[in-house]
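<amino_acid_chain>
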Amino acid sequence: MLADAYGRGATLPVVQPVTAQDGREVIVQIREVIRRVSGVTAGLQLLRVPIIERGPAQQPALPVGNPGRIWVHSTFGRFTEDLDTGYVVSRDRANHGGSMFKRFRVDVVGLIWVSDLDQNGEPIVGKHKSSVGTMISWSDLASLG
């Protein structure tokens, strides 16, 4: 039984380092650890595992012409000030209704939501906005500069 084999292999460290950089080599290393820990025969080495090659994610550029201060929020991510417009912009993590970005204005209490922006950085007119994220308090933001 695999459970018994796993128990016999429990003398090995629970965490095994994977040092390979190439995806195919990582699979080879993982298979070797499984073989040692479980006692499964070398036939496991014959299994083919497809590797999906992915290029860099194609996201629209943040619509900020002249970046200024940057803040980070634990839920909403990174906020970047645009020194040309005075607005602060962040990526929309929910992407509801075609929204790619959110635009805020700086206020004494924090960042106040102004509008959602499409992939071209243009405001989405008439889009419903819930109360979530309409005001981001300064105490909830960490400054990165």
Summary: The chain has a mean pLDDT of 78. The two ends are 57 Å apart (CA to CA).
